[in-house]
Structure of Spermatogenesis associated 20:
Amino acid sequence: MLSASLRCARRHTFLTGIAAMATVGTPGPPGVPRHTNRLINEKSPYLLQHAHNPVDWYPWGQEAFDKAKTENKLIFLSVGYSTCHWCHVMEEESFKSKEIGEIMNEHFVCIKVDREERPDVDKVYMTFVQATSGGGGWPMSVWLTPDLKPFAGGTYFPPEDGVHRVGFRTVLLRIAEQWKENKDALLESSQRILEALRHTSEIRVQGQESPPPAKEVMDTCFQQLSRSYDEDYGGFSKSPKFPTPVNLNFLFTYWALHRTTPEGARALQMALHTLKMMAHGGIHDHIGQGFHRYSTDQHWHVPHFEKMLYDQGQLAAMYSRAFQISGDEFFADVVRDILLYVSRDLSDQEGGFYSAEDADSHPTTTSREKREGAFCVWTAEELRALLPDPVKGATEGTTLGDVFMRHYGVEEAGNVDPRKDPHQELKGKNVLISRCSPELTAARFGLEPARLSALLQECRQRLSSARALRPRPHLDTKMLAAWNGLMISGFAQAGAALAEQEYVSRAAQAAAFLRTHLFDPDSGRLLRSCYRGKDDSVEQSTVPIQGFLEDYVFVIQALFDLYEASLDQGWLEWALHLQHMQDKLFWDPKGFAYFSTEAGDPSLLLRLKDDQDGAEPTPNSVSVTNLLRAACYSGHMDWVEKAGKILAAFSERLQKIPITLPEMVRATALFHHTLKQVLMVADGDSSGFLYRQLPFLASLERKDGKATAYVCSNFSCSLPVTSVQELREMLSP
């Protein structure tokens, strides 16, 4: 399956072979839109962005399916999301074109899908696009028969033909002609394609297969990651470069199990170095906080500027763990940075979290065209004007601008490599990146490090105030159960690691929001999404979208994390209820593991099981750990058996290419090493704080003081421990 981290960075289309660079469309006249289609009645911000296209868009649903069958028309399916740069480009060039809209309306029933709202639809047709083209991404463009079977597809199409490319208009007309002249052949082809997809996408246990051995799988995954590791800048590729929290989480666990070995030391170094380089890089928003989606270069410098909630949640957890293990306050400061951004810019007043901020925005209030990164970048001239003050105590003639520009790599002509800026949107601009250590910058200007820190903080505050006057990027105010779960985990784990009760309270507020707005108490089921509506109220779709596997998995994980940070029994009870519901709705009793969707939706041609950790871990990977935790808390040992069956179903992949499933590899280790729980209590008081798993022993060592520790497995024993060394021996694998 395509990693979601590739997002709309991939623009390959199998119908063209090569997708050339976009040509800029001519914007229509300002004023009232000339067209309004039925998407105006939807809640999704992405669908609403297309509500004034001249295309007669339908949302995914029976009305569109019936029209295609009644009129014997092909379906054109367009899938994207509201902060996708190339989705915006294709809309401007093609979907806003009256002429192209007329072709689409005449020959096709056109359906628009928000992939974040309907990941089930997206996964089915992305599986087809990947299988037939070798690539994928968004916007995804797929042509279907009236019975929803795909036969042609790709991603971004330019509007017109060019050298080495075929334009969207030409593709539409050719496919319409094929349907008219060779309908039977297309129908036959679509059926063969569907049968092949069913065969190749099946994941099931083979014979009497059992969970793979932990040591071999762990070692192979570590070796594969080590070979792909960038020794200079961290991360696991040259470019583009993604945060990949799943890799870092695996490395922390590998270190915990091999902490006295050279391999364990290298695993920890790889993870910590990667996290430091990311925090210094341009992928980190040094002025507005939080992290952008990914880096277009090897150095973590020039990012794709959208900000996604799921990145913030997972990275908050990773930096919290880095702090727990290392004790380095640098990592704790990054945690606070991320959570400040989310609390300020991605939080609904009712307690939920919004999905994303766009990469594109208007450079000025009078600009007609948006540009990627416009909200975040600076010219040297702007910085000198904002930071003209002389710095007392520094070398003669030094201004705040001199200090700031030196530290953050600002150049007079801009610091963006033109090769990373194909449309010259960043020409003459600077993406801030910490080029020097604080010690080097301080020495360069004759300053004490503490003085430098205060000066840089003053500069950042001024730039933040200046940036607040710029037009903001689009905010996707859709609230998803799964992504809210990841963010709740981030706040809960940060609260535990940094001993910050306000973070635990924020996690609890968000969990209460889910229970109020994304949970149906009558059916006991989760809902997928809700939306910020008029007057900032929380609204739901006319027909609510039921939760998918990922919603259950990430919410259950969040509730366990929140319970462990707060010891509020209610969160544990809700987590166990949702685990039972997940088993009922998604478990495959024949092939084992969980399907991504529940049975019974005739519009979904395939029930899939994700087989690759990407920007988010696959739900089955996290489910293994959730099941082990649920069994440990409840004594319901059938869940341990289920966890083993998931590992058995993925056994071949885990043994051959474990690097594709690092979170499941980590879960394999947990399956083979009994989970340990450590309850810290003082003076016989049975209330305390629950620590779990080996990576947290470093923080225990710093914090245990005179407390007594009790080690429990499944709550069946209560053994007093009087020293950290004794505790280590009991927890040794």
